[in-house]
Amino acid sequence: MMKLLVSIALIAGASAHQNFHQFWVNDVSPGYQVGIRMPPSNNPVTDVTSNDIVCNVGGTSGTGVETVAAKAGDTIKVQWDSSTHPGPITHMLYGPVDSAASTSGVGAGWFKIDEQDYVDGKWANEIMEAVNMTHTFKLPTKLKSGEYLLRSEMLALHGSQTLGGAQISLPGAYNEDDSDIYIPDFYYGFDPTTYKAPGGNVATCA
Question: Superkingdom of this entry's organism (predicted)?
Answer without folding.
Answer: Eukaryota
